[in-house]
Amino acid sequence: MPLGLSDNLFKRIISALALLPVVLGAIYLGDWWFYTLLVIGGYMMTTEWHMMLKNNQKPYIIGSFLCVSTLPLPILVFQTEETQFALWTIGIILLFALILLLYRPAKLSQIDSSASVATSLSGVAYIGLAILSLMWLRHLDNDGLLVIWLFFAVWAMDVGGYFAGKSIGGPKLAPSISPKKTWAGLIGGMLLAALVSLVISYLFGWGTPLNFAIAGAVVALVAQLGDLYESAIKRHMDIKDSGSIIPGHGGILDRVDGIIFAAPFTALVIAVAILNGAGQ
Q: Exposed end of the chain (fewer CB within 10 Å): N or C?
């Protein structure tokens, strides 16, 4: 392999380089361009979710996808004031979070494939959380830097975690869920996310660098929880990957599991801050 890289890592790098311009371009352009990216991703994620839970009934997949793709439309179409959308966003995030608590990984693995409504509802909550939050975060920012920072912080968690975990090793983070993840990987990922956030803050003069670095580390931690959540589902369902569409990464859910948790968390924090500021 080139540069002594493993076959899997080489595929990961090539896949990331191929997808990066498309993702960053859609984020920068915003509006319908970004919505289109979310819809395409939403369809792939919804399909993988149902396949992962061994429920491939097309009416339920399509129904879930329609719900997921409709959620961000009010933000895109009406463009109303931030405080109203902040309240709406908080309400939906908390509702979907409650659904995910009810249908946690161990519970999902016990759902019979004929219980399609439960599978679809949990999928709408899981995927819809991320898509709604990303659309709203993009709505807050004229040039898309907020969403770009979020993506880079999560990617930094993945990269830092991978290399720190491989080179340092040590105690396992959650051996019963994901045997390869280590505490060293978690700390390495958080540190790299903090560094990336610090650089973005300096380059664009955006926010207080130290606060931004702390925010990057916290987002990375939440992203790791998202990774573990999906890993727990796959372990309960006895599957390795959510799909095989991305070489070296498996499915689209395998690639964005960190974003799925980090985006709602970031949106929730910002929405609460907006409402707090409006109330003062």
A: C
